[in-house]
Amino acid sequence: MYKVVLIYFLIFTTQASSSIQDYIYPYNEFSYSNYGTLGLIQNPNARFLEEGSLGFAWTHNEPYLRGSLIAYPFNWMEVSYQYADINNRLYSLVDEFSGSQSLKDKSFDAKFRLIKESKYVPQISIGFRDLAGTGVFSSEFLVASKFLSPGLDFSFGIGWGNLTGHPIKNPLQEISDRFELRTSSVGEGGELNINDYFSGSAGYFLGAEYYIPRSKGLRLKIEFDGTNYKTENDIPLRQDSKLNVGLLFPQSKNLSYKLNYIRGNTLSFGFSYKLNLGKKNSQTLSKQKQTPIANTDAIKIVTSKSKSNLYKASLKYLSDDKFYLQHATSNDNSLEVVLSQTQYRNPIISSGRALNILNQIAPKNINSLKVSEINGGIGIYSTEVDRGSLSRGKNFFLPPKPDADISFQPFYYGGVNDYEFNPKAKYPAFFHTIGPDLRSQIGGPDGFFFGDLKLKSSSELLISRNISVLSEVSYGLYDNMDDLKLPSDSILPHVRTDIVQYLKQSRNLSIQRMQLNKFGQFSPSIFYKFSGGILESMFNGYGGEILYKPFEKNHAIGFEAWKVFQRNYDQMFGIRDYNTLTGHLSFYYTEPKSNVTFRMKGGKFLAKDSGISFEFWRVFYSGFRLGAFFTLTDISKEEFGEGSFDKGFYFHVPLEIFSNSYNRRNFGWGLRPLTRDGGAALIHSHPLWGIANSSNNNSFNRHVADFYD
């Protein structure tokens, strides 16, 4: 042990360059190990990708097939979801139940940076494998990584659990007897076995990654494997050598392939793909440049003749840029317009472009311009700017100074009586899209993957500015669900675990949603919504919510209550004999610097259990949203079943990141490791937080540099 520590000290105190950026290579981002997190081959390292990055890794490493989804909420944090097929074991101990299915294991991993690398100090991180899973791959580690030269990254660490292939005495035993024994065993998963962390035997591991010069990022990896193949999995694996070697082949900055030789007897291979989705879109400056209006001097002469001319010009030129003027009013030196729009997710870009249009057409006597936006008949915000400051800032491309050149305010929408110009809106208005929809059930004794491909019609009928009907109807095209048979084993009301019945009996024509909404507000900070109809795929009902969200504050409070009726499995209009009253009180807080939002939601859930749901999400500069949640209720772990408590994660990717045009659409994906009935909440469409989220001063101040985009 002392020799290892001495070698470690000598290596890490060499005066080597600490940054790979000093060495000019293409495709030099850090790569994934066989365990689906950043590392060498089997061993972890202390590295991280940039915050806002999202990665996927797949590895074939007998007897494991592993898929990993990896996210980086911060520069110092890596979290991942692991799905492993263990093909030398059956799905369960009962052969008749398992059929031909191999064991499937789901787990979460996490790693945190403790010390950032500097010239003389290595980067040090602490990590956890199988953090809340079954314990098959359970490990903890403390690892240090250091660039010994611009192209050589060396890592050394100490591990516990399954990272004890080179056993040493656990140094933490000198602190407390608690660390002497590791008592956890493989189970159903879902629990945090905190008492076993860093306990039992320890082991060391080490290795290096060499970036081969002038080879387009080709890398050689070599390591002394720290994995204990006698404790990992119930069936020990033969290990002929502790030395692993591998090559990484980057095809691009995002896509890489790998080939490894491990245990002295096994060839493993895989690929990974990663993207940074958190930064300001690199294509922003090339997106849909706002076309200057021609003959503005002549237009200003016309608009100076009468208010009617000014209002009609505002209506036309705003509409040309997909802003829909709802109301307008003007006096001797100011112009205010109320508009709606569906193109821009960023309120700074939206208001900046609308104000630029008004600046080009308004007569010279107008000194102040104001734009207010409504969404669903709810007032969201107002942006007011001094016209002289607007022109000077645009000429020199200087963003306006909040509270000096520009002001952001909450907006209460009182209706047509507050304005001089009220163009007649055409209602009802109908919007419609159609496209493919894929539903799936992954993992289980009946088969690895079951799913269906459906043609889905999504529509919105606007009856008035604040009343609408949302509909989602689909028709099945293809499915393979005939052999899907696994019934629910839940002892709670089957509010979610009858998913197999819903999937199988709604394969033809089905209705996912047909929801009537009415939105409104009592004040600039208090919003409400009433809804009724088919609220989601499993429940009909009616109810509403109210949200208190002060514009200048970083907190909000919401309340919702619903009377719901469980739907028939065919997802048409019929209902089953189960109904309940569900409702929650929610508290939101957004930390302004990191833009992380915390929500605590307490109340009664669909299965009549009561408790609290905790949710965290971060919205990055680009609009990319990454979140996770867990729910604790008054049912026991035995009543909940496998998984112990409800938990999951999700992400929403703005589609405009991949486009040369602005749009507000998202691609969203979320996952619960298991579908259970405890902690299940109603999934109604258009919650108030999403509608009124832009009504926040922090959002404007954070993006003020985008004002002239």
TrEMBL record:
It comes from the Bacteria. InterPro entries: YbjH. Keywords: Lipoprotein. Pfam families: YjbH. This is Uncharacterized lipoprotein YjbH. It comes from SAR86 cluster bacterium SAR86E.
